[in-house]
């Protein structure tokens, strides 16, 4: 049994938070915002993880903060780390070195105190070119997962997929590589269906059938907005539920923060308080949620206040 599967059986697992938004705020990631000359200064606007090779100390420090706040899993900052996505930011040639460096940093900080997950997200090919690009997406995802395996991750977190079709491909690639995978979809503009039209329940069933060791949702919604869709998933699938909500407030008409007018330059005006995450952490067990972390907007302060969840 893999270490993450063992942890999930023991108690609620506390994850970490969102790396890219926090490092964008600190000036190390290009967001395409009005501040796009920060970070690499190249203004790619791609939210890609080249910070792992260009400013490793900044990434190392954020890992340390999450570990210090009680995170049992550190996610290597390999989000948007496929060659397809890195090409768009001008870093395609460094795809392997960025993935390897990010995992190495996370492992150094984690030591034997936390597990290290490789983060894998959508290539964005399906959003741009439609389902006909699925085979190319498969090649890119398989390549990144191979790099993550070679770098020694403990397991994968497949996250922020908008199309279930692409998530299925990612899960097949994870299985082919022999890596356990937590699989979380992101729902927008509403929590009722993903981009290719599947309900949360359908997504949960399909992801569990394809071998995900936990299924759930991440990003886009604050905890109270995400809870109903997690309950749907819990009822539909007989595997642990994982949740990494965002810390930004959404609206009745639009359940995702990335389509709020505040994205990306006015996010502070819709920031959700740490208290809401403490409540979310506290209710995790009773809601049947086995893996609790945060996504965009959650820095280590959000974790340290939630760390009492296993003690509660
Ligand atoms: Zn996020």
Description of the structure:
With 312 residues, this protein is an alpha/beta fold. It is built from 13 helices and eight strands. The protein has helices at 3-10, 19-25, 51-54, 56-68, 83-88, 95-110, 125-129, 134-151, 164-177, 200-209, 223-236, 274-287, 300-306; strands at residues 13-14, 73-76, 115-120, 155-161, 181-185, 214-218, 241-244, 289-292. It has an eight-stranded parallel β-sheet. The two termini are 27 Å apart. Zinc ion binds at residues 18, 219, 246, 295-296.
Short description:
By secondary structure, the chain is an alpha/beta fold.
Task: Characterize the largest beta sheet: strand count, sense, and whether it forms a barrel.
Answer: 8 strands, parallel
Number of helices: 13
Unreliable stretches: 35-41
Order of helices and strands: HEHHHEHHEHHEHEHEHEHEH
Number of strands: 8
Strand content: 5-15%
User: Overall pLDDT, averaged?
Assistant: 93
Gyration radius from CA atoms, angstroms: 17 Å
| Class based on secondary structure composition and strand pairing | alpha/beta
Q: What is the 3D form?
A: globular
* Helix coverage percent: 40-55%
What is the topology, as strand order, of the major beta sheet? 1-8-7-6-5-4-3-2
Q: What is the terminal-to-terminal distance?
A: 27 Å
The small molecules bound here are: zinc ion
Oligomer: single chain
